[in-house]
Amino acid sequence: MPKKTVTRKFVVRKTDQERRREMLARQMRVSTKAEAERRKKLRESTEGGRRQIIVDTWLAEHRPHEIKGGIDAPLSPGQARCVVFLQCIPYPDPDEYWWDPDTYVLRLTIVEGSRDPEGNYIESERRVVLGDYIGHPDTLYAPDWASLPAGRTMVFRDSTAEVLKFLRSIGKSPGQAHPAAGAQHALPGPQATGASASSGQP
Asked: Which of 36, 143, 170, 190 has the fewest CB atoms within 10 Å of its CB?
């Protein structure tokens, strides 16, 4: 008489600690989503908050195109190099028991390239403050950019027209252009070297 094959199912029982961890993880996901929705509504309720959202969205769109090398390569006509810098200004006089939060200032430098009458490549720049925030970066009212590494620059390229359009959308003016600090000036142009018109362009 053939033997019967018995299939046994092994049930892995979770410990109380594992069940608590899973429950806390589910609660955290729900809490994080609810907090994000609440934060979005709070920011959209004010004009300053809406400007913060525009700036955050603009930076998020350009972050994947951040330039790591060859930052100073010559710019094509109509092209701009955007240098974003977050400055953190610590509260000047903290004491043992109380101090005010730090101040965060987001700065943008717009660098444009052109040719002078002699054909030399020169750069000019314009600077603008995109926003400032006093507080802790992890609060509901804080802009996303306040969590960027302070003191680190973020560099990318965009068309000058698009950059100016973005600034207008947040009510900012780029100001007057002036020679770029530390820029490459008087680089030989096509007329000086006899090279083709595309020489010196990225």
From this structure: 36
Chain centre distance of CA 32: 22
* Terminal CA-CA length for the chain: 85
Q: Which phi and psi (to 5°) does residue 80 adopt?
A: -125, 145
The C-alpha atoms of residue 85 and residue 110 are separated, in whole angstroms, by: 12
Task: Yes or no: say if 132 and 103 are a contact pair by the CB < 8 Å rule.
Answer: yes
Instruction: HSE, CB side, 13 Å, CA atoms: give it for residue 17.
Output: 0
Q: Dihedral sign, CA of 166, 168, 173, 177?
A: positive
Entry pTM: 0.66
Tokens of 54: 């525009």
Please report, for residues 74, 137, 141, the alpha-carbon distance to residue 132 in angstroms, rounded to integers and kept in the order given: 31, 12, 12
Mean pLDDT by 10 residues, the chain (202 residues): 57 64 60 68 77 92 86 85 93 68 92 82 90 86 88 91 93 79 42 31 34
Tell which residue, 81, 84, 103, has the closest CA to residue 158. 81
Give the E-state strand segments of the chain in sequence order: 79-89, 103-115, 121-134, 153-159, 178-179
